[in-house]
Structure formats: C-alpha cells, structure tokens
Design a protein that fits this description.
Blueprint (H helix, E strand, L loop, with lengths): L1 E3 L3 H12 L5 E4 L12 E2 L1 H9 L3 H6 L3 E3 L11 H6 L14 E3 L2 H15 L2 E4 L4 E4 L5 E6 L2 E6 L3 E3 L14 H8 L4
Helix pairs in contact: 1-5
The structure holds flavin-adenine dinucleotide.
C-alpha cells in the first residue's frame, strides 16, 4: 500500500494498516512539520476515533492533554454569559474524557513515529509524486534527486487539500479516482 501525505490521516491509516500486517510506504513532502494556523485540539468525536484506533498514547506521550471545559469568550458575549455556557467536554461522548489538546505539528510528528514503529516505511522530503492509476497502480516520486517507482495494490491520497499530482500531463480526474481508497 502507498499512502501519500503523512499528516494526521495518512500516518493514522499507515499505522493501522501496518499493524494489520500490510506493507505500507508513506510519502511525505515535508521533512519537518511546519506550524500553520490550525486548531490546537482534537474534538471529542476525533478523540473517539483515536481511542478506537488505539492511537491516544502517541498524542499523550507527545505532550497532549485532555481539556474538559472550554469557555467560549468572544468580543460580543458578556464574560458572565460565556462562563455560564461552558460545554462539559468530558460528557459529550461515552468513554471520551474530553477534547485532546495538542498542536498540529506535534500531532503529525507523533503519529508519523507511531506509523514507523508499527512497521510502515516513511519517506519524508519527497518531491513530485505521480500516480498511475489502474488495477496495479504505480507511484513515482522524487527523493534526493532520484526518481523512485513503487508498484502496489492500493494508493491512498491523504495529501489533502491539494492532491499529489504534480505532472500537468496527468489526467487529474482519472488519477484522483484511481488514487483514492475505494473501500
Ligand atoms: C485553520 C484550521 C483550523 C483547524 N482547526 C482544527 C481543530 O481545532 N481541531 C481539529 O481536529 N482539526 C482542525 N483543523 C483540521 C485539521 O487540521 C485537519 O482535519 C487535519 O489536519 C486533516 O488531516 P490530514 O492528514 O487530512 O491533513 P494534514 O494534516 O494537512 O496532512 C496532509 C499531509 O500531506 C502532505 N502533503 C501535501 N501534499 C503532498 C504531496 N504532493 N506529496 C506528499 N505529501 C503531501 C502535507 O505536507 C501534510 O503533512 C483545522 C484546519 C484548519 C485549516
């Protein structure tokens, strides 16, 4: 299996596939996860998935912690009203202790490490990725000025929001269909 994009989705998927015994290669263009304007927590329903996939410890070990209350202060709400409207995050979903507070780069790094520990091969700093869809898809990518080619059973595009189709010649509509996980 080839997973393109080693963010939160790609590394989580790679971990569970590798744990299930699949040979997985993950291709990530960044060598260091850049801090972007992103949220700093995983909402309760994301935590439920994290628990289901047995990935919670990776994020807690990386400095994540549970948040049980968030006060929705803003410019238009009176602080007293905001403080009265605190949602009980530890009671949102059964078995979910709250929202999990962790930065996006730290979460990505921790989950990447988990994928590697589970047996996935993680290649960071890849350049152009080209996917040739079909029954036996082919993935070509550049790494350290060398073009590599992988033949695999399945390619999953987790490089959201931009798909990894760097070559203008490629028919993106076909590639997108062929590159995504069908089931
Ligand atoms: C402003 C903002 C705030 C947000 N706040 C929250 C929040 O509070 N809580 C929350 O749970 N979610 C939040 N999100 C959403 C959260 O960031 C995404 O749901 C999550 O990161 C999606 O994971 P992903 O793996 O699909 O994408 P990403 O985490 O973005 O990972 C995609 C990976 O693919 C790589 N990539 C991209 N193109 C290529 C390529 N061509 N080849 C190889 N690799 C490639 C990228 O480098 C990246 O590592 C927020 C998003 C934004 C934009």
């Amino acid at each position: 299996m080839v997973v393109v994009g080693d963010g939160i989705a790609g590394s989580s998927l790679a971990t569970v596939l590798a744990r299930d015994g699949y040979q997985v290669v993950v291709l990530e263009r960044q060598t260091t996860y850049r801090d972007k304007v992103r949220g700093e927590w995983l909402a309760c329903w994301g935590v439920a998935e994290l628990l289901r996939l047995d990935l919670e410890h990776a994020l807690l070990d990386a400095g994540g912690c549970y948040v049980t209350q968030v006060v929705p202060y803003d410019e238009v709400t009176d602080p007293t009203q905001a403080e009265a409207a605190v949602p009980p995050l530890d009671q949102m979903l059964p078995g979910v202790p709250g929202a999990l507070d962790i930065g996006h780069p730290e979460a990505s790094e921790a989950l990447t490490q988990t994928a590697a520990e589970a047996g996935a091969t993680v290649v960071r700093g890849v350049g152009d990725v080209e996917i040739e869809p079909g029954d036996a898809p082919v993935v070509r990518y550049e790494h350290d000025d060398v073009i590599h080619e992988l033949r695999c059973r399945l390619v999953v595009n987790c490089a959201a929001p931009r798909p990894p189709f760097g070559r203008p010649r490629l028919d993106n509509r076909r590639a997108r269909r062929g590159g995504r996980c069908p089931d």
